[in-house]
Amino acid sequence: MNAMPSLAEVVDVVIGVDTHKHTHTAAVVDAVTGGVLAEITVGTDAGGYDRLLAWAATHAQGRAWALEGAGGYGAGLARHLGAAGEQVVEVDRPARSAQRHGAKSDSLDAARAAREALGRAHLAQVTSDGPRGQLAALMAARRSAVEAATLAQRQLHALVTTAPETLRAVFRGQSTAVMTGTAARLRQRASWDPHIITTASVLRTLARRVLALQREARDHEQAMAAIVRAWRPDLLEQTGVGVIVAAQVLISWSHPGRIRSEAAFAMLAGTAPIPASSGMRTRHRLNRSGDRQLNRALHVVALSRARYDARTRDYIERRRAQGKTDREIRRCLKRYIARDLFRQLEHSALPA
Hints:
Low-confidence stretches: 97-102
Largest sheet: 6 strands, mixed
Number of helices: 12
Distance between the termini: 16 Å
Helix content: 40-55%
Number of strands: 8
Shape: globular
Radius of gyration: 26 Å
């Protein structure tokens, strides 16, 4: 699938939509003049979406939609428009401080979304549902479970540290995993005073929470593994690419043609080099923008290959001999990994 041409070349109007939880505000913008022709606010349900489509049909047949937050509050509208055969692109929400004079309203944001889409040479397609949507839901749930389990483990450690010596002695010298299992099996003893009894009860509760969350995270990972193996098992053949990394790459990539080039994919991943010239010399620094979860996934692949892949180790040694720092080498590695994964995804597409 080729990248979309400039919207101004193919449509009469662009309908920008500022999306919110309970309402969406749309503005029809003329593709030639950039003027606002009409505005409307509708509810975020099927009736509101139908009303929005009927309203749009009264203004122009040659139209496209530019949605803010198409992966969030605008997801339902994006699906509805896609099912109706409408052309939909996604634009980022603006940084509020960058808005002209700090002006802010739903109507202004809707018009800005349309004008931004008209001014772009390359447009972002909306992410797909299907396997990608399943992976995104499972990844969010797994990440939440892992973070909650980590927090509970920290609380467990802190409580053991301050616990009475009777309990501290039980856990002394134990690893986190062993400590969690020990705490989950704690039983009250008749010789304990109320302070020890309460502390032991809380430790047991925290430990059982950790174990339950870890089981939940494993269940989500197994579900993701089944989807990845059914959709793109070829990714798992790449060195350093496991289920979690493959799932995140697929979530960010979505489908063939959504991202116009491997350079754009590298920019999305935050691995494209950023020039940092001082006037006397030109260097490049790490890119800290983009999809940070995708960047983290590529970082995991780079670390794994640096440890286990002979060709990668040889490359690292060559770059060190050229005077590159380890941080610069990691940036280069992640850039190459992003390029290879994108080419594999785009040119070795398997049926979903």
